[in-house]
Amino acid sequence: MSEKKGLLKRLAEGQVWTSIFRGGGVPKSRRQRMMVILNSVFLHLHPVRLPKHAVKLKFTWCMGGLSFFLFLILTISGILLMFYYRPTIEYAYVDIIDLAEQVPFGIMREIHRWGAHAMVITVWLHMFRVFMTGSYKPPREFNWAVGVILLLLTLLLSFTGYLLPWDQLAIWAITVGSNMARATPFLGSEGPGAALLAIGDINFVTMASDVRFALIGGRFLGEATLLRFYVLHCIGLPFIIMIFMAVHFWRIRKDGGISTPM
Amino acid sequence: MTNQQERYYNILKLNKWFAISSLLFAFIWLLTFANDFNRPWKKYQIEFRELEIEKTRADIKVASESLESNEDYSALKSKLEVAKNEVESNQEEIDSFQEKVQVLEAELYAINQNYQFAKADLDVAKYNFEQAQHGHGDLESATKTLNNLMVLTGARKLKAEIIKGKVEEANNGLKTLRQSLKEANDAISAIARDKNLLDRKLVKIDPEEMTFSNKIANVVRDIPVLDFIDPYYEVKQVVIKDIEDDMVFMGVPKVDRCMTCHMGIDKKGFEDAPQPYTTHPNIDLYLGASSPHPMNEYGCTGCHAGRGRGTDFISSAHSPDNDEMANRWEKELGWHPLHHWETPMLPMKYVEASCLKCHSGSIPSKAAPKLDLGMTIVEKGGCFGCHQIDGFENVPRPGPGLRKIKSKINKDFAYKWIYEPRSFRENSWMPHFFKQINNDDPISVKRTDQEVHAIVSYLFDKSKSFKMDRLPNQGDADNGRLLINSIGCLGCHNIEGDERGASLSVNVLRREHGPELIKLGSKTTQRWIYNWIRDPQKYSSETKMPNMRLSKQEAADISAYLISQNDVEFEQNTVPTVDENELNMIASDLLSSTLRQDEVEARLNGMGLDEKLDYVGGKLIRQYGCFSCHNIDGFEDAKPIGTPLSTEGSKLIAKLDFGYFHDEIPHTKWDWFNLKIDNPRIFDMIPQEDDSYKIKIKSPLDKLRMPHFGMNNQEREATVTVMMGLVKDEIPPSKLPSKTERYLAIETGEILIMQYNCKGCHSIDGDGDAIQPTIASWLSEIADKTTAEDKSLVLSFSPPMLDTEGRKIQPNWLFKFFNNPTMIRPNLQVRMPSFEMISDKEWNSLIKYFQLKDGQTIPYETPHTIVKNSTKYKAGEVIQEMGACDNCHFYGNQKPKQAALTWGPNLALVKERLRSEWLIEWYRDPQAIMPGTKMPAPYIPWEEPIDDVKESWGKNVAKLHSNPEKLIEALRDYTWGISGPTDVSRIVKAHLASEGYGFVIEEDDWGDEDW
Amino acid sequence: MPEANKKKSVAVPPASPPPAALGKTNAGSEVTRRSFFSWLSIGWIAFVAATGGFFTMMLRFFYPNVLFEPVQTFRAGYPEDYQVGEVDLRWKGKYGTWVVRESEGIYALSTVCTHLGCTPNWLSAEQKFKCPCHGSGFRKTGINFEGPAPRPLERFRIVLADDGQIIVDKTKKFQQEKGQWVDPEAFLKV
Amino acid sequence: MMEAFKHLIDTLSKPTILVSFTFIIFFFVFPPTDWFDKWHRRLKFDGLWSVKSFWIITALLVGFFVFGLGDSDFRSIMLKPDNVPIAGLIFLVFFFTWLSMNQAYNNDKLVEAGQPVDEQYDAPNDKILVWPDLVYIELITIILFSAFMLVWSIGLPAPLEEPANPSESPNPAKAPWYFLGLQEMLVYFDPWMAGVVLPSLIIVGLMAIPYLDNVKEGSGYYSFKDRKLSIAIFMFGWLVLWNLLIVIGTVLRGPNWNFFGPFEYWDSHKIEALTNINLSEFIYVKWMSSGLPGNILIREIWGMVLVLGYFMILPPLLAKTWLKNLFDRLGVARYSLFIVLILAALTLPIKMYLRWMFNLKYIISIPEYFFNF
Fold first, then answer.
1. Sign (positive/negative) of CA torsion C109, C114, C119, C121?
2. Which of D208, D223, D257 is the last residue of a domain?
3. Cβ contact B878:B956 at 8 Å
């Protein structure tokens, strides 16, 4: 026993350990407990001290944290899925079949899909909680707006991912969804006012030049759509959502941490 | 003083720099947009648009001029004016009608809507009723609702229909009032339709004709950034899903953008426009929407090759036809070959290569004459003997069998011939192996002298003996010459040593099917020739030479003629003596490939001179691949020695060794092939600055050994065309000619026809009859020059044309004829030979070919029957009598009345030989079936007054008089009934011997009084 | 450290005191103020323009110059190719379209039954389209009159090309129940 | 008995009944004003947020699902893999609504009693260090949640239907479930409204909340009394216009977007009479019995006047009368934004009722320019 304890202790006080974990050792004193947060790039996301209701689940529901955690799960499982999935109309569907049939831990797809649905729900509930505690009130108005954008991006991420299995469920959900873009006023080929954007015989907003086209890369759902949604899903939207997440977290801290009664 | 503001730079300066850098940045952005906007193809589209505008204007001018001069048009115009006035005068009435219609339609709208709604409710009620019957819901109330709604719907429908009737009535009133105006308008627009279409087109493309807003749109649509919406100038392309570009181990659907610049390619009317706007020269065969290769389904690069996705002159991999063109392109277009693309565009001279991809079974010779020629050269030259080429598996070896060579020639001739065949026979297909660029130095010559000795020795040693009959007599050489000229030898052989002429064609090559028959006196003996032509199969069972059924005397005469010429110069060539030392060296080279040096010496010491010669000869025959073209004992199963060529056109260019010639010729496959064929050993050489060559260091056995065929430029081009067409592209069945029974039959038939050179004598669908010029010259000899210039006469002495053979001949007769040819046209000297080597299966294929080609799908038919005492038959008798058919035709053994010159087939043959339907066709218009035939259309008196007919043609003809078709049938039936012996050859022979052809007859043969 | 010192030593303040911050004018002389203002505004205008260029490029990038979509329009020959009163079946298999010629003009009907998407047959003797699946019947105009089909057949856009040929464009559909058949492109007047 | 109950549920869940019932009862459950609050308490709806009610409602919900899963039609809808999250959503939304309202009512009581709210703390003495408490509970939450995700993933395979076939649309073709609220709106609005304008307004409206709600109280703790109006409006949007419509769109819409009760078979042959007409037809065809005028402007002028009046005249009118207090509190700018958002949101129930009562299709109908409202 003593031998073992000594070993751990020696390890925790050794050069390697202390070089990685600044301070080293198990934090016990108040100062150490503060330093362990301050010194870690990850834990540094948190403040050092908090009002006590901030650790009460009854108050926070932990929905913000879970949303972020789900984002991490989705990022990791998504990256793993990318190793087996090819975004072409020839292969997309069969690759999904293979995830279920032969890929080791093809359950990754389930984790990704249900994680995505769960994230939509946790983000909604997070917003609900923030509203119910009135946490959008000054000085947190802007961060609420950022949060709304994050909610929108979450939905868009889920929406773009919905197409990728390239099955009937996917393309018809996206067809229904993207057909609405066709009705955008002035910018959609079947939107009000689009017919007015014309000079002479030339119509400027057509099926091949409206917003829906930019979204799906064609007049009809097809190869280009799959590729566009794939790129948006894997690179474009994650890139944007990470920027907004950074702002969101930064502003939580700068706006005074978790909201408290005045 | 401290810097209170903690500043370093002057902010004004920074502002300035900020402004400058931003301006620069903005300017660079402008450049970026300009760069993207400026695409190489745009200038061509702009230019083509001008061309199109110009053309449309010209067309409009023509159209309106023709309209102006059209009387109907001006008449219609004034009619329109009248109609307009009329309608105007009725305006009040029209207005009242219109008002009425408006009111009624409003009413109808409401009532109709009510009806529709009731009907919708009724549908729901029906559904609910069904559901209730199924146990969901209250049946009673559902039934009640349903019944109520049925009544309601019915009532509303009735009401709506009444109003509808009223509306129609009013509308009809309106229509009547406006009828004349509408008619005039319709008539005018019908007559001016073409011009209106042109007008509309011009308004779309010509800014000068556009409305103001369209003028603006015309500019706006093509400005940078906005040019995605509906640009006038845009990349055009066709995507062909099932033709794929080879992307190494996989295919990618073909995308061709050629029409982005070649904008006129599929539009008629730009035939004379400059490139790249020219219309395709053969738009009915290619690109046209109704052609067999429409642009949308076949694209461009499937045939032309190149990089279809290219939108720039260079990136689309254009290839020039020649150096002059290359230089011009470099100067004018900055052209350079596109590297890193394996399939550059085929130069126009090789473009027919691509036909082979899909049409390898049956080359469309009219559309691809060069490819056809190339395929013939490959077959005649025997390329497929050394190089495996798909599709040639069953073609027999092109050279004569050498198994009984001893009896045919002597060793001296063999030596000289092998050494240099063309020194004896200028256009021989036997290629040169010796005295080539890589073996004509003294050391090599010393060696090759002995090599040939060894080969000859081997061949003669292995040769079996051939038991020959004696000549009956010396033969008459003069008669022999006439026989050769007349019986058909010249369908496959040349005899005069003619030049081929400037332009080579497949037809010329048909007469090189067999060897040229000159100077045989230097080659063989009369006795051998006599025995050979009497029965070729006896000498060589593999020969393609048919049996001409020559009599002993004929054969003697012919052999006398053939032997009469010799080549003194050739005979004087000396044959070097056998040199055992040199032989030893060759033998040891050959042996050392498998044995140690000491073993080699031991083996050599154990061999005598003859043994050595045989050993070396055998090895060299293998080395040079002689067995590829000749049947030689001991090489029955030898494998081809050359590179397989089945996919040579798809070979990576890196796999072709340009050696030291990479700067001498363009770096293309076709130029490499061309040089290789022109000078097969050249890649053993190192070119020098003074145009001489030095040879690479190579052992004699490692040297390049492909022989030299002495092809001229045209032959090489044709051969390279074939090679470029031997590609591994996978063509989907949808793009191939559909493999119907007919297609397959024609494919098989054409191969046989080529193999046995049928078209050397016969013409089929306008191709063949290679023998005809020699028939003409023979005629000029036995008659006179004017006779020889009479095309129809030459035709009547030529082998028959086989255009409608399938419809014409009864298959059983044809099969019998093939196996045992008999006389049909008595005046012919040309004989159908006996092809003893053709199997029953092949004959069947040929018969099927003729039948299916003519749409004759069933081989067995109910025979045509006649009733001899019928009106028809009797009428036919009169018609044949009046037509004097017996002037030219045999009736059994009854000789025709006129001279032999005009004789036609024995009519006793008709019943068993011809098909009755065809005979009708033939009687109706012989010229339609066989243009230029001497056979006149029988006179049928159907246009004459009935009384006259009755008087001069009798009652039977008069009965059928009104129906010319029946009269023709009558003649047919009579002919059908003619019987008698069918073989009249003895009578003919006797007649010709005593009276000749009677060429002197100059007057009209047919006697005016009968017609 | 030495570098910082060096900087400090070089940092001699300019002769005239510079304005305090970007975009805000200092209480300097009129001349400085004007020149400052104009340079800055030129700078910003140019910068915004350049950034606009970037975003324009991004936007334009999403609209390719060619499309690889299957062709949805086809040329259906000339109006004269069609007999008045006849339902033409030649485009049924390849393009799923019936072309009907009436005395007034021509229209193109979709061959998809509005009930469950089967392909009805044209029965010329009875002058109706009859769906083999569930027996829906449509008149020659495409109007449904029997069976379960809920609405008339759809019509495609049909116009005349420059060369006088008929062009049928399947991307644009006209539905009778929406009142779209009165659209000039739903019916080609001849 | 069971069948009768199912039939009752089917009938009750018809949009007309379900939505009307929700509309009526909603503002008594979440009273926006004192008047409603009075009735709220009088109707004992405040008891909803007690622990006892929680158990009763949970038991009812669970009971309903357990009962429902016995029915094949219900099962085939609810157990469709992508619909499973909705079942979860129903429970979660109820639970968290209850949780927040429960805490809010407790806090309200504390405030009334003059005591500090539950979340009140004495800064900075009451602060706690993050290490290890927060970090630790986060770790535990993550572990539990990960375990939950794995169980979910093992238990429910992700759906994969037939390969995509652009020429064969399933009936009904549905968007992902979280957009089904929008798709449900398509029944009443043209796509440009349901798919573009209203979603945009939702985003804008959500982002505008902090700027419109200028009540200082209620920041940082659960409360209801001081924020009655904002919470009621938010709840209306969140619970009714969003979650309820999602449930309707997912569970109650079948082939041809026809309505089907939760225990009803999705019969693709079911017919609903399409007898809707436009306002212009009402006026010109039904009442004036003249045909529709050819001129679009004349034809649609009535609808335009109505819509313009709704959005331009109603706000100032309300500001003067009903919403005087609110107007005073918010000021012109905030009030304008607020009222436009509210009026836009109200167009949905308005159009629903116009459709149900008068078969009204469009108030303004200009299909020529794809402009239908």
1. negative
2. D257
3. yes
Residues of A in contact with D209 (CB under 8 A): 131, 136, 144
The domain limits of chain C are: 2-61, 73-189
Question: What is the rounded CA–CA span in Å between residue B202 and residue B57?
Answer: 7
Closest CB to C162: pick one of B1, B20, B201: B201
Residue among B455, B462, B460, B461 nearest B624 (CA): B455
Q: Which chain B residues are closer than 8 Å to D270 by Cβ?
A: 127
ipTM: 0.85
Q: How far apart are CA A52 and CA A43, in angstroms?
A: 18
Confirm or reject contact between A200 and chain B (CB < 8 A). Answer: yes
Distance of alpha carbon A82 from alpha carbon D107, whole angstroms: 49
Q: What is the tens place of the pLDDT at every residue in B58-90?
A: 999 999 999 888 888 888 888 889 888 888 888
Closest CA to A251 of A150, A154, A153: A150
Q: Do B880 and B996 sit in the same domain of this protein? A: yes
Q: Is the pLDDT of residue A232 over 50?
A: yes
CA distance D68 to chain B (A): 19
Nearest to D367 among C116, C117, C178 (CB): C178
Lowest-confidence range among A85-94, B787-796, B930-939, D352-361?
B787-796
Neighbours of A43 (CB within 10 A): 16
Task: Give Cα D333 distance to the centre of its chain.
Answer: 26
pLDDT, chain A, mean: 90
- What is the CATH number for B878? 1.10.760
Phi-psi map region of D289: left, alpha, beta (phi>0 left; psi -120 to 50 alpha): left
Co-location of B482 and B499 in the same domain: yes
pLDDT tens digits for range B974-1001: 999 898 888 888 888 888 888 877 775 4
pTM of the model: 0.85
Could C150 and D168 be called an inter-chain contact, meaning their C-beta atoms sit closer than 8 Å? no
Architecture of the domain made up of C73-189: 3-layer Sandwich (2.102)
User: D114 and D63 share a domain?
Assistant: yes
A224: which chain C residues are within 8 Å (Cβ-Cβ)? 64, 68
The rounded percent of chain B whose pLDDT value lies above 70 is 98
- One DSSP character per residue, B626-691 reads GGGTS--TT-TTPPP-SPP-TTGGGS-GGGS--GGGTTTS-SSHHHHHHHHHHSTTGGGEEE-TTS
Tally of structural domains, chain D: 2
On whether residue B817 sits in a domain, the answer given is yes
What confidence score (pLDDT) does residue B1004 get?
A: 43
What sign results for the dihedral spanned by CA atoms B968, B969, B972, B974?
A: negative
User: Chain-centre distance of CA B1006, in angstroms?
Assistant: 41
Range of the domain at D78: 2-119+172-257
3-state secondary structure D30-90: CCCCHHHHHHHHHCCHHHHHCHHHHHHHHHHHHHHHHHHCCCHHHHHHHCCHHHHHHHHHH
What is the rounded CA–CA span in Å between residue B242 and residue B735? 8
Ranges of residues in chain C with a pLDDT under 70 are: 1-37, 162
- Cα-Cα-Cα-Cα dihedral of A141, A144, A149, A154, to 10°? 180
The reply to whether D235 and D291 lie within a common domain is no
C59 interaction partners in chain A (CB closer than 8 Å): 214
pLDDT at D39 over 90: yes
pLDDT score for C11: 43
Residues D246 and D294 in one domain: no
Return contacts of B964-969, CB within 8 angstroms, 24+ apart: B964/B940, B965/B920, B966/B872, B967/B875, B967/B879, B967/B940, B967/B941, B967/B942, B968/B920, B968/B923, B968/B924, B968/B938, B968/B940, B969/B872, B969/B876, B969/B920
- Measure the N-to-C terminal CA separation of chain B; round to a whole number of Å: 136
> Which structural domain range is residue B449 located in?
398-466+578-639
